[in-house]
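Long-time lurker, first post. I've been practising inverse folding by hand and with some scripts of my own, and I keep getting stuck on stretches where the structure tokens seem ambiguous. Below is the full token string for one chain I'm working on. Before anyone asks, I'm not after the true native sequence, just a reasonable design that respects the backbone. If someone could post their per-position residues I'd love to compare against what I wrote down in my notebook.
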């Protein structure tokens, strides 16, 4: 197999998606960031290192796909014929999609290292890495193996509630301790989009993510409302950007993607 330097050195931007706790929609946000970048004309890779909860294959309706090997390593599964978005997940390696990954830390870390070293991404613009919740061994393994490639940094996902925002504070501390730059904070589930009239209602509180970004002097990338159509798209493995072009959430995601591209263009 080729060394990771050969594969990752052709990736222009590396983004790590983090959340302080489960249930904030981190994988949904990671998948929509990847889709949004693809629709913005970028070539994208999405790496799912949430080994115990690999949801990315289902979100793209590619659960039945197989991983193929070439002399250079593993080829990602592409969701489109033009090969604009490739995904990699342990979900493709399980004999049954209901199998549980019951591994201790060293085996998990070895698997993540292999994902980072052996997947052939082929000159992509963005590699989005979807991580498990919290600050665990898996996160340290990802960051340590990316250090020599100067990753762009982390996007932190929160919901408006105080509990979730408090967990993101710890995630911010983790990023500082590991010297991982912070690209910005996204507030997910920020208001509920009525599927009938499109009106947005703040079911939860609002503004926690933005106030936290101001408190820590990091960019606030935007809010994504809780949209039943987005949930439907990820459940059915459909392209949300194509299926619901007029959605309020689509407009929010497109604004977020443009901000993200601008942030990356201004990075050294």
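-- Answer (accepted) --
I ran through it position by position. Result:
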């Amino acid at each position: 197999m080729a060394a990771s330097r050969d594969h990752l050195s052709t990736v222009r931007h590396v983004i790590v998606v983090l959340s302080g706790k489960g249930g904030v929609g981190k994988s949904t946000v990671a998948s929509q960031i990847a889709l949004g970048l693809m629709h913005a004309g970028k070539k994208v890779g999405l790496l799912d290192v949430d080994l115990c909860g690999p949801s990315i294959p289902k979100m793209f309706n590619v659960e039945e796909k197989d991983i193929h090997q070439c002399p250079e390593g593993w080829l990602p599964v592409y969701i489109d014929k033009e090969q604009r978005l490739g995904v990699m997940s342990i979900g493709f390696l399980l004999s049954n999609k209901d199998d549980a990954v019951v591994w201790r830390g060293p085996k998990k870390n070895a698997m993540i290292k292999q994902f980072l070293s052996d997947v052939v991404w082929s000159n992509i613009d963005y590699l989005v890495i979807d991580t498990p919740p919290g600050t665990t061994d898996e996160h340290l393994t990802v960051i340590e193996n990316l250090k020599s490639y100067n990753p762009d940094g982390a996007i932190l996902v929160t919901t408006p509630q105080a509990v979730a925002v408090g967990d993101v504070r710890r995630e911010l501390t983790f990023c500082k301790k590991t010297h991982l730059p912070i690209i910005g904070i996204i507030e997910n589930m920020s208001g509920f989009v009525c599927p009938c009239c499109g009106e947005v209602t703040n079911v939860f509180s609002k503004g926690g993510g933005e106030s936290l970004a101001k408190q820590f002097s990091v960019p606030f990338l935007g809010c994504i409302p809780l949209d039943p159509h987005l949930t439907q798209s990820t459940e059915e493995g459909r392209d949300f950007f194509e299926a619901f072009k007029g959605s309020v959430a689509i407009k929010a995601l497109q604004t977020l993607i443009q901000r993200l591209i601008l942030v990356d263009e201004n990075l050294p």
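A couple of notes from the structure itself: The domain at 4-265 is CATH 3.40.50.300 (Rossmann fold). Residues 59 and 234 are 5 Å apart (CA to CA). Happy to go over any region you disagree with.
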